[in-house]
Design goal:
binds ligand NAX, L-malate dehydrogenase (NAD+) activity, EC 1.1.1.37, Malate_DH_type2, L-2-Hydroxyisocaproate Dehydrogenase, Chain A, domain 2, 42% helix, 14 strands, Malate_DH_AS, single chain, alpha/beta
Length: 327
């Protein structure tokens, strides 16, 4: 199939956008045969900078890039979108309370949810990277009543990838040999990267690393990795976040690695005791634009308490946006 796919990206002039757009246009999202049309959304003040990025995209002469359009109107950009990558969000400014952050992003994601509802392709898939990703996805989904809820997901793949890389390093193997990792809950400090079912080169990960390493080193390092990158780079994770966004969207559209699963925040159907309707991360398998939660995993007492803590945070975010009238 060589019909171009229409991919919308928001926050396209931001740091993640600068890495993401070139990789999409290169074919890293839908494969080396499939042309893409890029539709890029930015706030009006960022459109001049985005024009510069568009010049660079043209100058790469990517054979798969059918065309690029930019605009600051969500209804124009999302018109006919088959895949919408919602990266743009309002960062937390100094002195901003959490409720201010939820409200500022609420304004963005209610509007974008409605626009997607009205003008996106019937078969659209929506992936939210912009933080707070889970709750932004919940807001967009609830404001798009005509789009099936399963079409919305939020990114925990960066956490999943960080966990895989760290486990591979600790066990002195390659990430290609690490399987069946799970990230549960919120993309925040409460996330739970779970090694209970993980395998390394065909052996249970927990036969190779100590429980103490898991609780005292692995979990805190994975959940604080974003802060560590920010501290070192003086800017938040960008290329790795773009790469994880691609991994997420590519697996969703083309299927995850055979014999493995991945992690994605999706609208809960009540699996593993996560209240239905919350956008929470689960281990999932994917194919053809659809996902399903991996069922039947045994949840240890430790895992239960970590999952419950992260889910409680998601419930409080949901309650806050409900009170603000955003959902
Ligand atoms: P930047 O601040 O560099 O870029 C964000 C861009 O979004 C800006 O160009 C801004 O003008 C644009 N924007 C703001 N409001 C918009 C709107 N209403 N419509 C369209 N565009 C709008 O941030 P960047 O480093 O690119 O990060 C983007 C988002 O990803 C942030 O919310 C960030 O917190 C989040 N992240 C999420 C991660 C995840 O794993 N889920 C990891 C990386 C990243 O921190």
């Amino acid at each position: 199939n060589t019909t171009p796919v229409t991919v919308a990206v928001t926050g396209a002039a931001g740091q993640i956008g600068y890495s993401l757009l070139f990789r999409i246009a290169h074919g890293d999202l839908l494969g080396p045969e499939r042309p893409v049309r890029l539709r890029l959304l930015e706030i009006p003040q960022a459109l001049p900078a985005l024009e510069g990025t568009v010049m660079e995209l043209q100058d790469c002469a990517f054979p798969l890039l059918a065309d690029v359009e930019i605009d600051s109107d969500a209804r124009t950009v999302f018109d006919g979108a088959q895949l919408a990558l919602l990266v743009g969000a309002r960062p937390r400014a100094k002195g901003m309370e959490r409720s201010d952050l939820l409200e500022a992003n609420g304004a963005i994601f209610t509007e974008q949810g409605r626009a997607l509802n009205d003008v996106a392709h019937d078969d659209v898939r929506v992936v939210v990277t912009g933080n707070p990703a889970n709750t932004n996805a919940l807001i967009a989904q609830r404001n798009a009543p005509d789009i099936p809820e399963s079409r919305f997901s939020a990114l925990t793949r960066l956490d999943h990838n960080r966990a895989a890389a760290m486990l591979a390093a600790e066990t002195k193997t390659s990430v290609a040999k690490v399987k069946n990792l799970s990230v549960w809950g919120n993309h925040s400090a409460t996330q739970y990267p779970d090694l209970d079912h993980a395998m390394v080169a065909g052996r249970p990960a927990l036969d190779l690393v100590s429980r103490k390493w898991v609780t005292d080193t692995f979990i805190p390092t994975v959940s604080q990795r974003g802060a560590a990158v920010l501290q070192a780079r003086g800017a938040s994770s960008a290329a790795s976040a773009a790469s994880a966004t691609l991994d997420h969207a590519r697996d969703l559209m083309l299927g995850n690695r055979h014999g493995d699963w991945t992690s994605m925040a999706v609208v809960s159907d009540g699996s593993y005791g996560v209240p239905a309707g919350l956008v929470s991360s689960f281990p999932v398998t994917t194919s053809g634009g659809d996902w399903s939660v991996v069922q039947g995993l045994e949840i240890s007492e430790f895992s239960r308490s970590r999952i419950d803590a992260s889910v409680a945070e998601l419930e409080s975010e949901r309650d806050a946006v409900q009170q603000l009238g955003l959902i």
